[in-house]
Design goal:
The protein has 13 helices and 23 strands. With 516 residues, it is of the alpha+beta class. The chain folds into four domains: 179 residues, Glucose Oxidase, domain 1 (3-Layer(bba) Sandwich); 220 residues, Glutaredoxin, CATH 3.40.30.10; 50 residues, no CATH class; 50 residues, no CATH class. It has an eight-stranded mixed β-barrel with strand order 2-3-4-8-7-6-5-9. Strands 11-10-14-15 form a four-stranded mixed β-sheet, sandwiched between helices. A two-stranded antiparallel sheet has the order 12-13. It holds the Pfam family VSR_TRX. It is found in: Endomembrane system; Membrane.
Length: 516
């Protein structure tokens, strides 16, 4: 059986999640019953996915059995899923105690709840619901599977709600995250905590895919002054007693001050964490140098070009490949190198030291400990890391009718990056041919199609016509041009030596033909 309370409330920002412990209090407004009308405190969880900048209306249900939600509700024959179309979502009210917060929320989600409110059983100040408590007890616990928001409410409010239930009050509620918009009508500020490591499986693949898809949006908003973006990178320091160990030497720079996890989760093969830290530093320095030139959006070109042309799998990850990308974007290699400095210096690095300091939470933003992490207007974004969802979250920073046009029409994205250093793509200036294309997702480097012929190459450093087209060009003075065609075209995998040999062979034949 269920004791049912449908409570009219506006929870203003209370479920805007944080990545770690947040000491931030939020407001909950009860609209009815009349005796409970008013504002109350609540504290958001650091897991789950609230509707950033949106709202949700539903009903609150308090279970007669399994009130602490420490067991699966199926064991009690309780389901919160509506059997009729058009029913409001259910917000589950449960009591604190006997199991982890994450367990309560997960069981509520499995039962069909759209959100969970945890009533404190102690008279104490509110604190954020932490997912870390479950991870410390069970490292296999998969918190990303929790996709509903949750919050902690005070003991007194919980008691009042339960009393209202016993009195048979039925009232609707509304969860509202619109107060996550601290800068209406002004510039939205956001930061993305990321990593240059591309060998961490699907998580890394998804991150790179997001960067590529969101690049056009980010550059358009930045160029028009609607946003201010800052990339960040997490590092950790090695304990002083282990600085000289093999592990710290391979994973850290600056004598153990700045470290990253080994990409392959082992020390015997591939690249080391040290390589990741250095490339992270390159990416930060590219942003700083680009920002000084008035073009901070070039960071998006750099990281996406680097991910495509310099992946670990192709053994192209070292800084030599990074330098090629830097030069292709027209940035000063000297300025970037000066920013990177000496990784072996036994002293603090000002850039990486600032990054470590920035990891510590300030104001409404808690500590950053997970990758990737997106922070919008100093509040942690907990939605899906995809182009549309992040764009909607950014657009909530602006009042209705004053938001950028891209907020209502993604097709209005025009980066025009090909006009600036050819977008870092391949080009043949003599032939006026380029691999750069401006698309709604930003600049794409793709070898062109000319007169029906598809050029071959990576689009960044190299494009060329198929071999049969090159031979036709050589052969253009013949009375009856000879065309060599095959079931496939000779592409860039042919070595330069083979190309020259074929060219010399046919040049000799052509010369002999003209003699006769």
């Amino acid at each position: 059986m269920l004791r049912l309370l449908i409570i009219g409330a506006a929870i203003l920002g209370c479920c805007h999640g944080q990545s770690e412990v947040s000491r931030r209090k939020s407001r909950l407004r009860v609209m009815s019953p009349p005796e409970l009308e008013g504002a109350y405190g609540c504290a958001s969880a650091d897991f789950g996915f609230p509707q950033h900048g949106g709202s949700m209306t539903g009903v609150v249900v308090y279970p007669r059995y399994n009130g602490q939600a420490c067991s699966n509700f199926d064991e009690y024959g309780i389901s919160l899923r509506s059997r009729r179309a058009g029913a409001l979502p259910v917000f589950l009210l449960v009591d604190r105690g006997d199991c982890f917060f994450a367990t309560k929320v997960r069981n509520g989600q499995k039962a069909g709840a759209a959100a969970v409110l945890v009533a404190n059983t102690k008279s104490e100040p509110l604190f954020a619901i932490e997912g870390a408590e479950s991870r410390s007890a069970n490292k296999t616990d998969d918190l990303p599977d929790i996709t509903i928001p949750s919050a902690l409410i005070t003991r007194s409010l919980g008691d009042s709600l339960k009393k209202a239930i016993d009195n048979g009050n039925l009232v609707t509620i509304n969860l509202d995250w619109m107060e996550s918009r601290p800068y209406p009508d002004e510039r939205a500020e956001y930061e993305f905590w990321t990593n240059s490591n591309d060998e961490c499986g699907p998580k890394c693949d998804d991150q790179v895919d997001f960067l590529k898809r969101f690049k056009g949006v980010a550059q358009t908003l930045e160029k028009k002054g609607y946003t201010q973006f800052t990339p960040h990178y997490i590092t950790w320091y090695c304990l002083e007693s282990f600085v000289l160990s093999k592990q710290c030497r391979s994973q850290c720079i600056n004598h153990g001050r700045y470290c990253a996890q080994d990409p392959e989760q082992g020390f015997s093969k591939g690249y080391d964490g040290r390589d990741v830290v250095i490339q992270n530093l390159y990416q930060i320095c590219v942003f700083k140098v680009a920002k000084k030139t008035g073009k901070p959006w070039l960071w998006w070109d750099y990281v996406t070009h680097f991910a495509t042309t310099c992946p670990m799998k192709k053994k192209m990850y070292p800084h030599e490949c990074a330098s090629r990308v830097i030069r292709s974007l027209g940035l000063s290699q000297k300025a970037v190198d000066m920013c990177v400095g000496d990784p072996d210096a036994d002293k603090d690095h000002p850039v990486l030291k600032a990054e470590q300091d920035a990891q510590i939470g300030k104001g409404t933003r808690s500590d950053v400990t997970m990758l990737p992490t997106l922070v919008i207007n100093n509040r942690q974004y907990r939605g899906k890391l995809e182009k549309g969802a992040v764009l909607r979250a950014l657009c909530t920073s602006f009042q209705e009718n004053n938001e950028p046009s891209v907020c209502s029409n993604e097709e209005d994205i025009q980066t025009n990056q090909c006009l600036d250093n050819n977008g870092g793509c391949w080009q043949d200036m003599a032939a006026n041919v380029t691999a750069c294309k401006d698309t709604s997702t930003g600049t794409v480097c793709e070898c062109p199609v000319l007169q029906g012929v598809k050029y071959i190459g990576d689009g960044y450093n190299h494009c060329e016509a198929p071999m049969y087209v090159q031979i036709e060009t050589i052969n253009q003075d013949w009375p009856q041009p000879i065309k060599i065609r095959n079931t496939y075209t000779y592409s860039s995998y042919l070595t330069e030596v083979v190309h020259k040999a074929i060219y010399n062979l046919f040049s000799g034949i052509f010369a002999a033909h003209k003699v006769f």
